Amino acid sequence: MYMLEIPEGITYTMTFEVSPGDIEDFLSEYGIDVLSTSRLLHYMALAARELLKKYIPADHTSVGYYFEIYHLKPTTIGERVSITAKLIKIDKYKAEFELTVESGNDIVARARHKRRMISVQELLRRVYGV
Fold first, then answer.
1. Which of the 8 DSSP states describes residue 76?
2. Ordered domains of the chain (ranges, CATH)
3. CA 130/CA 121 separation, integer angstroms
4. Which residues, in sequence order, are CB contacts of 91 under 8 Å at separation 6+?
5. How far is Cα 78 from Cα 67, in angstroms, rounded to an integer?
6. Does the model's pTM come out above 0.85?
């Protein structure tokens, strides 16, 4: 099994604009169009994955297996949001991140996320039995 050799403390930041596809459906019924926690989680996992991407072999990927999130502030359609993933721990083929989400000067969310590196072949075998 390949072991991750990535310096702890490195960061990756991505930015996106909240769009209609990112809003919380059940609140939209009341005219409240805010970024859903599930969509925010998606973007946070993407930031962590992107941080790892350039450090792992091309025939490997990473999959998330743990998330702890505190969604602290609503954000509306059109707001620019930045997510910073910070690598805080490496253990062989597992990585742990702290994530911070900001809009302007406000903290939107904080999270802890864990990902595991796996070969694409192994993942195909586990998912499809091939």
1. B
2. 11-128 (3.10.129.10)
3. 8
4. none
5. 26
6. yes
Please enumerate in sequence order all residues whose Cβ is within 8 A of that of 16, keeping only pairs 6 or more positions apart, or say none: 43, 80, 81, 83
Q: Which two tokens stand for residue 9?
A: 């403390």
What is the spatial distance between Cα 36 and Cα 78, in angstroms, rounded to a whole number? 14
Instruction: Give the residues across from 56 on adjacent strands.
Output: none
User: Do β-strands 94-103 and 106-119 pair in parallel, antiparallel, or remain unpaired?
Assistant: antiparallel
The tens place of each residue's pLDDT in the chain, 130 residues long, gives 556 778 899 999 999 999 999 998 888 788 889 999 999 999 999 999 999 998 999 999 999 999 999 999 999 999 999 999 999 999 989 999 999 999 999 999 999 999 999 999 999 999 999 8
- Quick one: tokens of 81? 């949001």
